[in-house]
Amino acid sequence: MTEHERIPLAGVIGSPVAHSRSPFLHGYWLQRYGIKGAYIPMDIAQADLAEALQVLPKLGFVGLNVTIPHKESVLKLADSVTDRAALIGAANTLTFRSDGKIYADNTDGSGFVANLRQNAPMWAPASGPAAVLGAGGAARAVIAALIEMGVPEIRVANRTRARAEALRSDFGAKISVHEWVQAGNMLEDCMTVVNTTSLGMVGKAEFKLSLDGLNPKAVVNDLVYTPLRTHFLNEAERAGCTTVDGLGMLLHQAAPGFERWFGTRPAVDDETRRAVLSA
Ligand code: NAP
């Protein structure tokens, strides 16, 4: 039997999904590398998730990005889960293997690290403590990555303290939990400071933190990328710190999936940034 050529399909599943920039990003890369393929946003309800994961590979899908609310549920439906996805408790990248198995990974942490390495080359994470504001899914990925990078101590503050306490029990003694209302106090000596809350995003309240104790040698990163320059980043820059926006993390977390599905490692460069920003 001769097999006809199939155009590889990938996409992002979530609900809602219309806001996702992933279709623009993958579409741009497909065009840039002249790859025959397509990347489609799919709004899939929680109740339909299991069925969708059975049907999509049969339709020619080679993989998916996963966003809210499916990032945790897909772990139970996957045949194989990477250690980092299991530790984080969520997956953002699925690959449908030719043997029919679903492989789940989480590339948010490596995207976070690659963004800081690219945009703050002097960043030395192991040289001092890190401060993480927030304790949601993104914070889990950031903390797992910081531990892997050899950060000696990670100070966490979150509005809902219990969520920060849960991080301490999951990630161990390197984590210390601090009061949200006095989060500025934990910044002293920190070499890495990351806002992982959704505060500062368009449509949300501003993220305001007392930066009096901030070390000017710290690298400060905001995971929020709409707007690109947040009030928090502007204030940190005024305090003399190197600042990095969240767009690079979005681009870098997408690259491994694109490579697995379409066979080409895509560039994360100024051209890619411009393409996504102009979308
Ligand atoms: P999540 O699991 O829903 O967590 C949201 C976090 O924000 C929690 O820590 C939450 O605190 C905090 N928060 C929300 N509203 C708040 C308020 N009014 N005051 C104080 N804290 C508040 O979401 P996530 O997946 O971690 O995402 C968090 C942010 O990171 C989002 O803006 C997302 O777009 C961004 N992100 C960016 C990238 C990237 O590639 N750049 C990747 C992943 C995520 P409570 O626990 O108290 O609710």
Characteristic key phrases:
globular; binds NADP nicotinamide-adenine-dinucleotide phosphate; 6-stranded mixed beta sheet; 6-stranded parallel beta sheet; 279 residues; Rossmann fold; alpha/beta
What's the helix and strand layout?
Elements lengths: L8 E6 L7 H11 L5 E6 L5 H10 L2 E6 L6 H5 L2 E2 L1 H6 L4 E4 L5 E4 L2 H12 L10 E4 L3 H12 L5 E4 L3 H11 L3 E4 L13 E4 L23 E4 L8 H8 L3 E3 L2 H16 L7 H8 L2
Parallel strand pairs: 1-2, 1-3, 4-6, 7-8, 7-10, 8-9, 10-11, 11-12
Antiparallel strand pairs: 3-5, 5-6
Helix pairs in contact: 1-9, 5-6, 5-9
This protein binds NADP nicotinamide-adenine-dinucleotide phosphate.
NADP nicotinamide-adenine-dinucleotide phosphate (NAP) binds next to α5, α6 and α9.
Distance between the termini: 43 Å
CATH topology of the largest domain: Rossmann fold
Strand content: 15-25%
Largest sheet: 6 strands, mixed
Short précis:
The chain is an alpha/beta fold and 279 residues long. It has helices at 22-32, 49-58, 73-77, 83-88, 108-119, 137-148, 161-171, 231-238, 247-262, 270-277; strands at residues 9-14, 38-43, 61-66, 80-81, 93-96, 102-105, 130-133, 154-157, 175-178, 192-195, 219-222, 242-244.
Overview of the structural elements:
The chain has 279 residues and is of the alpha/beta class. The protein folds into 2 domains: 9-106 and 251-277, 3-Layer(aba) Sandwich (Rossmann fold), CATH 3.40.50; 109-245, NAD(P)-binding Rossmann-like Domain (Rossmann fold). It has helices at 22-32, 49-58, 73-77, 83-88, 108-119, 137-148, 161-171, 231-238, 247-262, 270-277, and strands at 9-14, 38-43, 61-66, 80-81, 93-96, 102-105, 130-133, 154-157, 175-178, 192-195, 219-222, 242-244. The strands form 2 sheets. The chain has a 6-stranded mixed β-sheet with strand order 2-1-3-5-6-4, sandwiched between helices. Helix 8 (231-238) links the parallel strand 11 (219-222) and strand 12. The radius of gyration is 19 Å and the shape is globular. The mean pLDDT is 96. Bound molecules: NADP nicotinamide-adenine-dinucleotide phosphate (NAP).
